[in-house]
Write a structure and sequence with these properties.
- The structure is a single chain.
- By secondary structure, this protein is α/β, with parallel strands linked by helices.
- It has three domains: about 140 residues, Beta Barrel (OB fold (Dihydrolipoamide Acetyltransferase, E2P)), CATH 2.40.50.460; about 200 residues, inorganic pyrophosphatase (n-terminal core) (Alpha-Beta Complex); about 110 residues, Diaminopimelate Epimerase, Chain A, domain 1.
- About 40% of the residues lie in helices and about 20% in strands.
- It is built from 20 helices and 18 strands.
- The strands form four sheets. It has a six-stranded mixed sheet.
- The radius of gyration is 25 Å and the shape is globular.
Length: about 575
């Protein structure tokens, strides 16, 4: 009997790699195992991972077209021309736009910033919005987090006399748009430190390259050279929020940017943390669940410009006013999301859901469909697409599970789609209203095909997997050397997941339920005790745990808890079983 529905999978690296890291690097065996599972094979690499330095950032000029881009920007700055910034409406786009605007302003430049409207325009670089820049006297335009497939918009920009620098991080199309420069880490080999950069991270690389180029050209003279460390707060906010793998440049941005975000002097960041009740150190969880949703609420329910204005604000009172409005919009977003979720769930028939779930609501707000789809995908462990009507067509968002590449699923359905985009985990699409049922059938077939391709069965194999990185004794994680190294593994996220370990042969002491849904007990083993906490467990969990009970198998993640200024190690319960998984 188990409290969860996870399939436990033990993921162990080659023993010789663990042995080498332990012997050559002096790492405890468990820490060496975790390092090896993150692709680190040599002690030198492991130390660089655990003890990174600002000098570890790679040369941004290695990115194709980077030199062309910085020369165009330098020319515009030297001639006093306005620079246009066209950015996506999510956290990644907004933070990237803020970095560019603030940096250009620091150099004495002028900008004109525009975000597409999620409802009216949809995602992407749109030709019909370009006259805005022409009317503002812009001659050079930089995109943020979009444009990699925008052939039509780039052609129209050229027709209007605009030079275009595309900065993006989405998958490359077969043919790149004919922009003056296309700056993306995706043009490099997959092992490149720049490959997984998000939009804000790509912009940071552009700014780093531009500063160096201007320095070499003597642009600054007697003026102070901008300190780019001060831009890492915004870069970290965009990087963590966009859920890109935290390796390569992304890890450096997160490691050095999150402390900057914690202590950021920006009025907008301070005000945002106030309304989000975020005090003290800001980690990945604070970004994902407190800060990012409030920034995203602007683009989801109103205008992304609201969030941009907050991040670039220099006035504390204005920042507080904008932050309060974002907080209000986020509350409204939560209400609307719950309504959409309730209506969507009501459409599902009883029994086994289809391989791919497609649901439609006539008046569902487009801005919350992705979040609601994600929650349904998590509940039923199926890829989910939610659609709403926009004029004569249907538009929507999808979220997937690790076993199904959503972008490939959409590609298999492209005969019934008017357009689609995204990546393996999430995407957007549009189709003719008369093709809804055709798409439902095609999407289910596509998902089944992709599962069969991997040798997976819909009924037997499709349930959440929990990857365990070791079966350990309690004294191993209480080893001070492990605790010190474990803290340096953070920040955790995609590409560097929070480690999950399994325990057995322990005794349960002091089991109790907090706030009717949170489980806490002391795990006792061989004279050592450690507190274990499980969030949102059912009430029957207390009947499962009894004082002194043995014979349980626990899957849990070590984490450092903070309370009243004290830091201590605890276990975060992920699953609990009566028998060996």
């Amino acid at each position: 009997m188990g409290l969860g529905q996870y399939q436990w999978i033990l993921k162990l690296p080659p023993p010789e790699v663990v042995r080498g890291l332990s012997q050559e690097g002096g790492f405890p065996r468990l820490l060496a195992t975790l390092l090896a599972n993150r692709g680190l094979r040599e002690a030198r690499e492991a130390y660089a991972f655990l003890y990174p330095e600002l000098s570890d950032f790679a040369d941004p000029m290695l990115i194709p077209d980077m030199l062309t881009a910085v020369k165009l920007l330098a020319e515009a700055l030297l001639s006093g021309e306005k620079i246009g910034i066209y950015a996506d409406y999510d956290v990644d786009g907004v933070t990237g736009a803020a970095i560019l605007h603030l940096f250009f302003t620091e150099l004495g430049g002028q900008t004109e910033v525009l975000f597409p409207h999620r409802e009216k325009d949809g995602y992407g670089f749109h030709a019909h919005l370009l006259p805005f820049f022409r009317e503002k006297g812009v001659k050079l335009l930089v995109t943020v987090d979009c444009g990699i497939t925008a052939h039509e918009a780039v052609a129209e920009a050229r027709r209007l006399g605009l030079k275009v620098i595309l900065t993006d991080h989405h998958e490359l199309p077969p043919r790149l748009p004919e922009a003056h420069a296309v700056v993306t880490g995706k043009r490099l080999p997959r092992h490149s430190p720049f490959y997984d950069l998000c939009g804000a991270g790509t912009v940071l690389a552009l700014v780093r390259a531009l500063r160096r180029f201007l320095l070499e050209q003597g642009f600054f003279g007697e003026r102070p050279v901008p300190n780019l460390k001060r831009y890492l707060d915004l870069a970290a906010l965009g990087t963590v929020a966009d859920m890109v793998p935290l390796r390569g440049e992304n890890r450096l941005i997160a490691v050095f940017g999150l402390p900057e975000l914690s202590e950021s002097p920006r009025p907008g960041i301070k005000a945002l943390k106030e309304v989000a009740a975020t005090n003290g150190a800001v980690g990945t969880e604070e970004v994902l669940f407190r800060l990012a949703p409030r920034i995203n609420a602007a683009g989801r329910l109103r205008e992304a410009r609201l969030a941009f204005d907050l991040l670039v604000s220099r006035d504390m009172e204005e920042a507080r006013r904008l932050a309060r409005e974002l907080n209000r919009l986020n509350s409204e977003r939560q209400r609307v999301e719950e309504q959409v979720l309730s209506e969507a769930l009501a459409q599902l028939p009883e029994g086994e859901p289809p391989a791919g779930i497609v649901l439609f609501g006539e008046e569902w707000p487009l801005g919350v469909l992705g979040i609601a789809a994600g929650r349904i995908a998590e509940r039923f462990y199926r890829p989910v697409v939610l659609l709403t009507r926009k004029g004569e067509i249907l538009k929507g968002s999808g979220r997937s599970i690790p076993e199904v590449d959503l972008f490939r699923a959409f590609r298999l359905c492209e005969e019934v789609l008017l357009g689609y985009g995204g990546h393996p985990a999430a995407g957007g699409l549009k189709l003719a209203s008369g093709d809804l049922e055709n798409f439902r059938k095609a999407f289910a077939r596509a998902v089944e095909h992709l599962l069969t391709e991997k040798g997976l069965s819909l009924r037997e194999d499709l349930r959440p997997r929990l990857f365990l990185e070791g079966h350990v004794r309690l004294n191993e994680i209480l080893d001070p050397d492990f605790v010190e190294g474990f803290q340096r593994l953070a920040p955790f996220g995609p590409g560097n997941p929070e480690p999950v370990l399994s325990f057995s042969d322990f005794e349960v002491r002091q089991p109790r339920l907090m706030a009717e849904k949170h489980l806490r007990f002391t795990l006792w083993q061989e004279g050592f005790g450690l507190s274990a906490v499980g969030f949102n467990f059912p009430e029957e969990a207390l009947f499962f745990l009894k004082e002194g009970v043995r014979g349980l198998y626990l899957a849990a993640s070590p984490y450092i808890s903070e309370f009243q200024g004290n830091r201590y190690l605890e276990l975060r319960i992920r699953d609990l079983l009566r028998r060996e998984p």
